[in-house]
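Let's see one such:

===
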Amino acid sequence: MAESNPLPLVLLTEQFAKLPGIGMKSAQRIAYHVMEMNADEAKALADAVMNVHKTVHLCKYCQNYTDRHVCPICDDNRRDHSLVCVVQSPQDITAIERTNEYKGVYHVLHGLISPLNGISPDDLKIKELLARINAGGIDEIIMATNPTVDGDATAYYISKLLKPLGVKVTRLAFGLPIGGQLEYADEITLYKALENRNEI
């Protein structure tokens, strides 16, 4: 932004530019939009951001975001708790749930193993997954990480950890494009990928 802009507006723009998919021009437009809000609207936006940080945390079982002790999916007795779908991010759960076909539960890794980006297995929620399996009652793990180099490496790494535990480990049968993102896949493609998953 030009130096003629007030410093608080410049700082706000820089914060918006840190969001994924938001470039400097979009960030500047959002910052100006915020400036055009009335005080009540601006406060509501700020309160919503702060409220998320105060009330939303990780589910003690699946590591998905929730404002409860246990998320609604883990708390649902109609779900098959012996079947766990392992995903990279909470957005992937939303994508799979749109199919209305998957009846198991989930585990969110919150990332993928990526040595180039300095992300090791210890940075992910793998220990929590192992604890769930060791507690018993899980028959199958579906690795639903994205079909990328990091996604495949993460799926392979976790499958090697789980094989000795006597749990069946499968991988989505991707009719998804290589390098694609689960959250952008359509429902039919995701359903077919779930239906035709393969053991790894």
